[in-house]
Structure formats: C-alpha cells, structure tokens
Design brief:
Helices cover 26% and strands 32% of the residues. It has three helices and nine strands. Helix 1 runs parallel beside helix 3 and helix 2 runs parallel beside helix 3. The chain is of the alpha+beta class. The two termini are 30 Å apart. A three-stranded antiparallel beta sheet has the order 2-1-6. Strands 3-4-5 form a three-stranded antiparallel beta sheet, with no helix packed on it. The protein has a three-stranded antiparallel beta sheet with strand order 7-8-9, with helices on one face. The radius of gyration is 17 Å and the shape is elongated. This is Pilus assembly protein CpaE. It comes from Gryllotalpicola koreensis.
Amino acid sequence: MIASSLARQLRDAGLDWHPAPGDFFQIDGPEFASDETFTVSDMTVEPHEFDTGTILGFNGTTEWALDSVSLEQALWLPREDQLRERLGAAFRSLEAHPAGRWRVTTSGTSADNSQPFDADDPESAYALALLALFDVAALR
C-alpha cells in the first residue's frame, strides 16, 4: 500500500477517485489516526451519490461514532492494479531489482526514450511514474 504522503501528492496532482468495492482509503484530517485504513465494501463502507457530491457511509460500525465522511475528507490509497491502469499506454514494464527495489519504466517524452521510477514496492514505483505523467501534462 502506498504511503499517505504519496497518495496526497497524487490527489493534489489531479488523480480523481470514484469509490468502488475493494478500494482502500484513510480519513484525511488531523482529528483521525493517519494509520487507520478503511476498505470500501457494500456491507461496511459504501459510497452514496447525492446531488451535492459523494459521501462514504459507514454501515453498522459500532466502534466508530461516524456515519459518513465526504469524498473530500477521504484519501484514496490506490492499489497496484489501479495505478498501472491509470498509467495506460505510457506503462512499459515492472522489474524487481537487487536489494528489494522495484522499477517501473514508462515511455518518455519522446518516442526513443524511456523513464525509470524506482521504489521499495511496486505500488510506490507506479505512483511515482503516474506523478511524473501528471507533471508532464501540467506543462502542456
């Protein structure tokens, strides 16, 4: 799972989220424990669409005095497959490297080069590559 700080960078760069069962998130605010992770599920945490926006409803959670939280208060922690999907055609490869590092390679800014992104886990390598794509898109 990617770090909250990396997920926050992705959100701030423009990564949008449409909650679906199996998605991981944290409640992003100083009043909540930053290490508490939730999973969207039809039985426990379910997205509800309203004219005013999406809220995440907590159904039947006795340990929390929390009924719902707005999507803006939630920090999505995208999975490896979700990050790879968002890279789209720019994704070239994922490789394991010595000392437990992972490398995602994407197509570069021109047809004849590529860009490597190294991290301690595949999810973070994908996230770094996606951040670079957002940066390139922002420059255009």
